[in-house]
Amino acid sequence: MCASVSYAQSFRDMFRSDAKGGIEYGVRAGLNISDIAGKYTGEGMSVKIDNKSLAGFHVGGVVAIPITNGFYVQPGLMFSSKGARTVDKESGEGYSYKDVTKMFPVYMEIPVLASFRADIVDDVKLHVNVGPYFGVGLGGNITGKYEWTEDGESGSEKYDPYPFFGKSDENKMRGNMKRFDFGLSFGAGVALWEHYYVGIKYDLGLVNMATKEISNYVKMHNGTFAITLGYNF
């Protein structure tokens, strides 16, 4: 125990020579507004897949390690739900239908951000964060619902959910999406009274999520706008 305490103190002292403050620990949680940008390029065509945004969440923790005055390295561990939805609808004389499909993957993510910080006024500090993130899909499903109206009658049907990750085979339907994700995170926020944090960020996925069976003609990338609340210890 004494050796562990001594090592931790030495580690802190490495970064404190000209830094503002010491190592910080924080918790984060908030709202995700996600989309999956898609394109189909098979059979000589190039067609954008018209996905729409889907609300989700993120929750986790961060550690801010001071490097020099106003500059920190901020790794973290986040659990984040992302996804998108597609809406196909049509209406005419005496009939209408709407087919909605929702993709709802959940990831464990490790962001490693460069965090630049500056005092704006007393008790208010600006944070600007940028860097890569690495994600691993933990689970999630694809669900759907079909609604119709014709000649005064109407009805609806829910599709059986199936996993978002993995490739389909003759025995089971899957979403044909890879579990690994990688991208860049851009964000900014303010720390209030040293402890409370409010921020926004955008995560831009750089990996084609489609499995190799379809990746030659289908391109899918995560994109997530997030509003974050946090507390720093």
Task: Spell out the blueprint of helices and strands.
Elements: H1 2-15, E1 24-40, E2 47-49, E3 54-68, E4 71-81, E5 84-92, E6 95-121, E7 124-150, E8 153-163, E9 180-192, E10 196-205, E11 218-232
Antiparallel strand pairs: 1-2, 1-3, 1-11, 3-4, 4-6, 5-6, 6-7, 7-8, 7-9, 9-10, 10-11
Task: Write structural notes for this entry.
The chain has 233 residues and is mainly β. Helix content is 6%, strand content 68%. The protein contains one helix and eleven strands, in the order H-E-E-E-E-E-E-E-E-E-E-E. The protein has an eight-stranded antiparallel β-barrel with strand order 1-3-4-6-7-9-10-11. Strand 3 and strand 4 form a beta hairpin. It is elongated.
Question: Can you tell me the residue ranges where pLDDT is under 50 for at least 5 consecutive residues?
Answer: 10-19
Strand order of the largest sheet: 1-3-4-6-7-9-10-11
**What is the CA-based Rg, rounded?**
22 Å
DSSP strand (E) fraction? over 45%
Q: How would a crystallographer describe the biggest sheet? A: 8 strands, antiparallel, barrel
Distance between the termini: 23 Å
**If you average the pLDDT, what whole number results?**
88
- Overall outline: elongated
How many beta-strand runs? 11
Percent in helix: under 10%
H-E order: HEEEEEEEEEEE
**Class derived from helix and strand content:** mainly beta
- The total count of helices amounts to 1
